Amino acid sequence: MKKDRKSRNTSSKSVRKAGRAATSGRTDKGRRSFLRTARNGAIGLAVVGGIGFLFVRNVSSTMHEHDLTRVQNGKPTIVQIHDPQCSSCAALQRETKQALKNFDTGELDYVIANIKTPEGRNFANRYGAQHVTLLLFDGEGALQGVLQGQRGRNELRFAFERLLSG
Fold this sequence. Notes:
Elements: H1 2-65, E1 77-82, H2 87-100, E2 109-114, H3 118-126, E3 133-137, E4 143-148, H4 153-165
Parallel strand pairs: 1-2
Antiparallel strand pairs: 1-3, 3-4
Helix pairs in contact: 2-4
């Protein structure tokens, strides 16, 4: 009988130990799951924040680039009459931005008059300009030149240099 009681005590100790191990295992799994969720949440938050930052920066840059009030700001300004659905306009924009890289920041202003907006259309009409056109203004806002059609970056760079020396 002593042996019987002893084996029951041993088996009940084994059951208690197994129970604690199972509880501990569940606690570890719960903790790991929580930490994994917290890590993934932090990564997700960082990604969403980064995307939000880039979006705001892009919108603000676009708004600045389309601000036609910058003509007459004391700096020579290049205004592109632009149709966003026109591939020639997009090509002229790329070439213009490449040509502008040859100048110091702030030396020239670059503005886009989008003819799909009322402001851009009115601006283009005021100067009788069609899309795929660059209007070159001095710092006081006087029109100094008109470049119609597709142009290469070297030709644009020389035209911009003439505007600056003008």
